[in-house]
Amino acid sequence: MGKQKKNRQGADKAFQKKKVKVGKKLPKSMNTTNTSFKTRTIQIIQQLKKDEGEATTKRKVNIKELLSQCQHYNVTVRLGAAKGLKELLLISEETVIAYLGLIVDRAGSLMTDKDCHVREAVLKLFQALFEKVPANCMSPFFPVLCAHLCCAMTHINGEIQQDSLSMFDLLLETYPQLVIAGSNQLMSNFVEQISKKKFKNVKGDRLKSNDLKFTLSVTPDSRLSSQKWQAKVLTRLNKLLSIVLKPENLKSDERNKLEHDFTSGSRFSVPFQSYVKDQWSTPGFVIKTASNASNSSGILEDASSIKQLVFNLFPLLLQCWVEAHDPEKTEGSLLYPDAISVRTTVLQITLLLIEYGARNADSLDVPWKKWLTEQYGASFENYFMSCFPYEVLQNKKLLKKQKQTQNTVSPETLNLAVISVMIKFIKCPIEFLLQQSWVQTILKYVRGALKSPSLSLPVKKHLLQVLNELIYAVRFHEQEALLNESFVRFENVHALSQEKRMYINFFSSVIFSQSERSKLSTPLIHFLESLPELLLRIGSANTDISTQVVSVIKEAISSNCTPVIKKWQDYVNDIFNVENGVFINSSTFVRKSLIEIFYWLHDVSPTNLCVLANLIENDGLEVEHGLYLIQVLHQRYVSKVREGVIIDKMADHLGFLLLVMSGSDTCNNNSLMDTSQGQITPIDWSKGDNFEKQLKLNNLICQVIATDLNSDQALVKDILWSHLEKKIQNGDQVNVQIVLSFMTILEHFYDNEYFDDVSINLLIDLASDLTAIRNGSFGISVHVDLVNNLFKMLEKIVCGQLIEKFVERIISRILVSEPKNENSVSLVQMLAHVTHQNSVQVYILENEPSRRQLFIDHFQKLVKCVQEKFPGSTSEPWWAQFLYFLELLK
Amino acid sequence: MSAPREVLFTSDASGQLWNSCVWDFHTGTSLMQYRGGSSGSHSLCLLGDDYLVGGGGQKSLVNVWELQRKDQNQLKIILPGKVNCICASPDGNYCIFGIAEKIYIWQTCSGNLLKVISRHYLDVKCIKFTDDGSHFISGGEDNLVIVWCLARTISSTDFPLSKPEPKYVWSGHSLPIRDVHVGSGGVRARIISSSLDQTCKLWDMATGELLCSFIFDTPIISVSMDSAEMRIFAGSTNGNIFCVNLYGEPIRTERHIGNTAGEGINIFKGHSSQVNCLCVSMDGTVLASGSDDSTVKLWDIHSGQCVRTLDHKGAVTNAFISLTPYNVLNPDSKPFLHVQQFKRHLHTTCVEMRIRNNKRKLDDSNERALLELMHSQSSVPSENENDINAVQEVVELKSKVSKLKSVNKELYEYSVKKIVNKKK
């Protein structure tokens, strides 16, 4: 009980009731939760999760905001927008390109912004944008861009106008094709930029005339002088026109390419006509009706509109020409440098338009040249030719400046431009009319220019272009004089210079554009005649020029230009010389061309052939070229023969072939001929290195002789064998080459009639040597392939009708030989080898009994002899085989 | 003996037995022979279905035989120079001769010389027509292959000095051209040319581009393709005939073909001297080749075996296979075309064009077919539901016609009575 009490007392303590008193704070109960907390701010510098859809600039402005900012009234905001767009473009291309239409619209409107910094920023933006966007993506928005550009071009503010030019430059560079499509609109604006400015025009009264006559405008209050302004606009106009008129050029170039350049394309191409290919690149169709045909967007979509264009532009250009220079200050022909550049541009534009008209003359309603001469011939003559050879007036003040700006135009360029325009107005040389007086001035200038050596390279190029046109527009004797001058110049130019190549190009184009190539004028003939010598002089110093020269020569020869053929014949020996000729050092293409030229030569002399044979022998010449040369010469011979057989030619040709076959180094060495007749001389095995080449040549020659000279077979064989005999009996050592040719001839043309003692001796010598070499008991090491080849040939030859003679002679040789002679042993082995051949066995076994007996007698003698003299060899396996065959025979 | 579908025409350089001969190449029997002179290479051709023209060699004389007559006095035509090659248009209306470096075009029926073209610089070696006769191709010693539009070249006859412009000038070869073969397809045909520079080049006529060049190791004298253009055949100077498949991967623009048969290349060996002419039969199974070794060989293309050898007396200059002309088999027939002596001077006034149906039978059948077609179409509406309407319409129209006729008659009578009689 007491224990219980104690417990109760403890419990009482725990459950003691606290007294709550009025006025005192209520104590907190033990089980309450503390709900208070502390706060502190955290700065999050970077968001972990990116905003996936939206790319923004550093200022966290996305594209939509940027675009709306473009229209903001505040300049800085607009500037920021333009810069921001560019920044965004660099960060994420895709978002910007997705909004391409909007950007072009909004940013395009900034082109006419008052603030120059904004315009600058927009230009940079477009520069970056155009690099990224391909032309076909831009094409739907291009009209919008064009419209903004036109706004800028026609803006009141002169500065905006100026900036629009650089924008236009950008477009021309990146989207030339699109500019062409929208050129109509741009063009008229362009013209207006320098001509029709109503409110600033001093000569305001002229504007009333409504017939589209443009007059030059002057803007006295602008910062730039009107001349400079004109120069700027004119250069752009030149660029635009040259691009607009370019596609035609390209097409004609391609067609030329088709004619000439076939060797280059190595990849497979599916042939489609160019207009089909054009359709692939620009899908869709242009629907034209009668009503909308007139307002097409390009200036020159319709070729006949060129007339209107010329009508508008030419007076303007002439005014520019006049204004460029003040005749009161200096003499008419002395010009300041900037005047020269303006005038050159004027002429370039004029030339472009004239040429375009001439190209499309068919679609015009008037004969172009006549119309042009009537309209402008007199005025052009008046303006351009009045003080024709223009010179530069060096102003001392300007001199320093010019060194800084390097793109000055030389007076020669201007003069040449004048000439190239005026050439179009020269009357046709056939007409027996009075030539215009200024033609002589032009001719005088051109001749002077040809003589002066100090012209720069592009000017020289230009000069030749002009010359190329000029010679067709003047009379014959003048043409010849011009060609003469240029030929003199050509002669004096250094052989390896760029200019030489230009002249070669010029002359060859003149020559090959003439239809009658047998009636060339004298300077052209001189040119052709000088080429072989030039080739010799160049040698292998410059492969480009020598290739060009060779191709010109070849084209001339293959198209029946007789002078060059004759001249070439004189140089054949030098060019094909082994030691220092051009041929051996030139490239594969040149070599082939040089070989091919032989086909058309009228006459190839024996000395030429000797040189060629030497060349083929030379180690420096690949087999392929040697084979090709032989084939070309042979084809030439065959075609000559078809015209009429000449026995001399045949002898020459055959002689050449044999010379190649047997080697030319002993060809003049006939004096020793009879000293050692019948003597057996050992074969010289030392020169067997390039036997493969020799073998190929020999095979080809034999084939050629067999196929094409069959009709005179008896004669051919006679020559062949007598030649061979001479070689073998020559007393010198018989070298590998002769052996090879001997064997090939035997293989192809064996004839019992001509086969004599000397030949069989050689054959037996060869047989013994070969067997020895195969056994490894020969002193000199010889190439394995050579031996194998020869052995095969020997087998083939011996296993024919020759077998009887061969066996007889070989046995008689063995019988007289001394004991233990290595040579004889190998002979015996050879004989055994031969008799082991299937065809030989059949031949002997199936012969008549009497002849079989003959063989048996021979063989028995041999067996007896061998057993006496060379007992060592009776243990060899081939001896057993031989004995077995003998048994079979018996 | 049933008539063969195709026959082989051959000629040799000697002309001892005959100038040219017609063979049934399946049996090797000769069907017809034409005597007189000999024909040079590329100078034997059919003129329509009626004549055989052959000549050249070293002479300026051309023989024209009527195909149906065996022993006859053929028409002999003397030309201004040595004939290098002859080609007639497929319909036989025009004959083109290569004489020295010039090309002469004659109209066969009038004998007028329509045009002389001098564009080649050296001898013209070969002229071939496209199968539709619209263009012809000439190849010469000056390495050029030139494509001409026939209509354009002869349309300028009124201006004898004007120079016709070629359609294409292909200058890809580096040595003289020896043979040209034109595939089927008219203006879109493919053309293959062979040259002494050891190559054959395949050209596309639609665009003028070079499609492929085949490089051999011997000069190629003759070239041909089968009608499906599956293979080309090239006859070389050493007597080998290369058969190269045009199909198969990989496709290359340059193919080097060596001296050994390999994948896609088969070599027919048998001739001992250069192969002058090649021709494939219509079905592409038989190849005829004529060589300088005085034989014509017939090859089975698929196996590459020589099936038959026809011996000749001299180097074979021409061998071509053609559909059997009707006149060869029928000695009683008369030639349809009209051939006159060729005139020596250029024809300058307007050309009288004789338009005559060459293939009358064919046209008759065409007409019949057309009529049948019209009948069938007119019978279509009568089978429809509203055929009654149609009948009614016909009746109405007929009544209208009769009304109009009666009015016309009245008018006529009135005029005759009132106007004409008044005058009397």
Automatic annotation (TrEMBL), chain A:
Biased composition (Basic residues): 16-27
Domain named TEX10-like TPR repeats: residues: 526-887
The UniProt record lists the keyword Nucleus: yes
Chain segments carrying region Disordered: 1-32
UniProt record similarity statement: Belongs to the IPI1/TEX10 family.
Keyword entries, A-Z: Nucleus
Positions of the Pre-rRNA-processing protein Ipi1 N-terminal domain: 138-241
Species per Swiss-Prot/TrEMBL record: Patella caerulea (Rayed Mediterranean limpet)
SUPFAM superfamilies: ARM repeat (SSF48371)
Protein name: Pre-rRNA-processing protein Ipi1 N-terminal domain-containing protein
UniProtKB/TrEMBL annotation, chain B:
SUPFAM superfamilies on file: Quinoprotein alcohol dehydrogenase-like (SSF50998)
Pfam family, one: WD40
Gene Ontology annotations of biological process type: DNA-templated DNA replication; rRNA processing
WD repeats: 117-148, 170-213, 268-309
Top-level lineage group: Eukaryota
GO cellular component: nuclear pre-replicative complex; rixosome complex
Alphabetical list of InterPro entries matching this protein: Quinoprotein_ADH-like_sf, WD40/YVTN_repeat-like_dom_sf, WD40_PAC1, WD40_repeat_CS, WD40_rpt, WDR18/Ipi3/RID3
Gene3D superfamilies in alphabetical order: YVTN repeat-like/Quinoprotein amine dehydrogenase
Designated name of the protein: WD repeat-containing protein 18
Source species: Patella caerulea (Rayed Mediterranean limpet)
Organism ancestry: Eukaryota, Metazoa, Spiralia, Lophotrochozoa, Mollusca
